[in-house]
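User: Sequence in, structure out. Go.
Assistant: Echoing your sequence, followed by the structure tokens.
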Amino acid sequence: MAPRPAWKGYLKLSLVTCAVELTNVVTHTERV
């Protein structure tokens, strides 16, 4: 088995961070 590339994990982390930020923005917008 080949070692997993580090950038894949970073990309996944970035996607999760973006999703969390988007959720916060949507929640904040709904409150206003």
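User: And one key feature?
Assistant: The mean pLDDT is 85.
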